[in-house]
Amino acid sequence: MDIFYDSTTCLVVLIYWLIIVNITYCILIKRRSIPSSMSWLLTIYIIPFIGIAIWFFFGEFYLEKRHKRIAKKIWSISNQYLNQLKSCKYIFQIKNSEVATSLFQLCKHRQGMSGIKNNKITLLTDNKKTISILIRDIYLARRNIEMVFYIWKPGGLADDVARALINSAKRGIRCRLMLDSAGSIDFFRSPWVQKMKRSGIQIVEALKVNLVRMFLHRLDLRQHRKIILIDNYISYSGSMNLVDPNLFKKSSGISQWIDLMTRIEGPIATTIGMIYSCDWEIETGFKILPKLPNKEMLKNTSNQNSSVQVIASGPGFPKNVIHQALLTAIYSSRNELIMTTPYLVPSDDLLHAICTAAQRGVKVSIIIPLYHDSVLVKWASRVFFSELLEAGVKIYQFKNGLLHSKSILVDRQLSLIGTANLDMRSLWLNFEITLVIDDNNFSKKLSLTQKEYISNSELLDKKIWSNRAYWKKILEKIFYFLSPLL
């Protein structure tokens, strides 16, 4: 028995150290940021068994190779389609405003296309009104409706959208719905799934969460995009999930979530449709490329001077492109930079860019929620406040609900609206989408919205912040240590 026990112990210890060595090799061989690498190394050595479990589920990008392979195949097969799209020269903008030029050049070189003009862009700031307009568009649809959301929470207005989709499907409109498995867990447990399928709606559960797939991809890799496409002409995107704002997360006591959405009529729907097509094929194996834009769709649009780019991130899409876009936008600012985000855990590069902008005379304001739904992110974000305040950045804490909108306004001309938070997961992991809008009229509306946010916020006082309790500073440091893992 002693020999068996000793042999088993030696085998377990050997396997344990082989796993530790293998993880250490994976951390060191892949060029990560130093804080991230150090956090992982300390985690697996200080709390070994728990650290190994965390690494196994969250450390490695298990799905990356598979998605890259499929996405590469998709874009290779689609070369003819892309060339046909590029031949529609009447939709591409040749020149951008001074502040937007660098960012649009980056997007062109990274994604292969210039910005698209001839779009009618509307900024939607009220979730109830947004859903009301969406329901109207669904009932008016003539050919197809495609949607992807991180969260679809049944109840209230969300059920009205479901009924509108069912009605459209029954009258012959092709409807496709793609929802994240983790974010929309309540939807997939509801009767709506079968009701929709019986009406002819195709439903895909993206990045399924189950025991088998736990070993195939990271649990925190999520389909975080919010996209609606109608008739290859109308498109929606922004921070809003498909939920009733009066019902969603009422138990948290934070009041309503505040979101921004864009509704766009015009050829940009084709570009957004390509992203949706890629996501759909990755999940189902079927290609659903959108129809090419025609001159007929340009009749009802205006503002030839505006331009829109779409940036998509996630496994298989251009690496770090949203991170690069944010850095380019910040460094392009000359006068004013206003940012809204619910989660502020920036990379070192982003933090440096924001502080540098303030130190070279740009009026930099960051608007974040005062009340938060994530304790971890709330405390992790606080460790950045001192450096931002010292550089001259104004930090506003929004009081009237949970500010969930993700927006950047540069020099009251260049706007970025999308799904990506200023945290590690959004920048380097999730499937996200950001719209880059070079449009003076749109930027004026965004500026008014951001000013309204500021009027409902508390300005963080530098002196009061520096005198906060010592135990709070310790907590902030602890969560800062964990921030690369968030």
Automatic annotation (TrEMBL):
Top-level lineage group: Bacteria
Single Gene Ontology BP annotation: cardiolipin biosynthetic process
Topological type in the membrane: Multi-pass membrane protein
Enzyme Commission number: 2.7.8.-
Catalytic residues (UniProt): H224, K226, D231, H404, K406, D411
GO molecular function: cardiolipin synthase activity
One Gene Ontology term, aspect cellular component: plasma membrane
Subcellular location per the Swiss-Prot or TrEMBL entry: Cell membrane
Family: Belongs to the phospholipase D family. Cardiolipin synthase subfamily. ClsA sub-subfamily.
Protein name as catalogued: Cardiolipin synthase A
Encoding gene (name): cls
